[in-house]
Design a protein that fits this description.
alpha+beta, 3 helices
Length: 170
C-alpha cells in the first residue's frame, strides 16, 4: 500500500487524485482509495488539514493532488452586510466551522444552525459542494489569502509558546 506523508509546494507531474470530504481531510491518519483505484495510507502531522489542490507525496515518489469532495452543506445568503455579519458572529460564537465566500457563508448541514440564521433574517439553501472552512485566525499552514507563511492574525504575546533554548522575549 502506498503511503503519503509530505506536502509539496509544487510538482512537475501529478500521478493521481485523492478525493476526500472535509472531515476526512482533518484526519492525520487515514486509509483511503485514490481516484485511480489504488489504496493509500495517509500519515500527516497532527493538526494538519488538507486543502483542495494541495499536493502530497511519500516514499514511493508518486505525487497525489487532494480534491475536496462535494458534500451536503447549507449556503447562507443575506440581504444586507449587517445581517451577514450578525450571522457570521453567531455562527462563530458557537464555534461553527464556516466557509466565507463573496456574498455567502457555507456551513455543514445542521438544522439548529439553519433555524438560528433564518431567525436572524438569512435565506438558507441546501447544496452539495466542496466544504473549505476558514482555518482560523491562529492556524499556521492552513488556508491562506496571499500571505504565504504568515499567520492570518498576530498571536498575543501571552499565547506564544517559549521552548528551552528560545531567546528570551524582549
Amino acid at each position: 500500500m502506498m503511503t503519503l506523508h509530505t506536502k509539496l509546494a509544487h510538482a512537475e507531474r501529478v500521478d493521481d487524485e485523492l478525493v476526500l470530504a472535509y472531515d476526512q481531510r482533518e484526519k492525520c491518519r487515514l486509509r483511503a482509495r485514490l481516484a485511480g483505484g489504488d489504496e493509500v495510507a495517509l500519515f500527516m502531522v497532527r493538526g494538519t488539514v488538507l486543502r483542495d489542490g494541495e499536493l502530497l507525496t511519500g516514499a514511493e515518489g508518486r505525487v497525489v493532488r487532494v480534491v475536496a469532495a462535494s458534500e451536503p452543506t447549507y449556503v447562507v445568503h443575506c440581504d444586507s452586510p449587517l445581517t451577514m455579519a450578525r450571522c457570521a458572529f453567531h455562527l462563530g460564537n458557537r464555534h461553527t466551522q464556516a466557509q466565507i465566500g463573496d456574498g455567502f457563508l457555507r456551513i455543514r448541514v445542521d438544522p439548529v444552525l439553519k433555524e438560528m440564521v433564518e431567525g436572524l433574517g438569512a435565506r438558507v439553501v441546501q447544496e452539495s459542494a466542496p466544504f473549505e472552512p476558514e482555518a482560523g485566525a491562529y492556524a499556521g499552514g492552513g488556508h491562506s489569502h496571499g500571505h504565504e507563511g504568515h499567520l492570518l492574525a498576530p498571536v498575543p504575546l501571552r499565547q506564544k509558546i517559549h521552548r528551552p533554548g528560545d531567546p528570551a522575549p524582549a
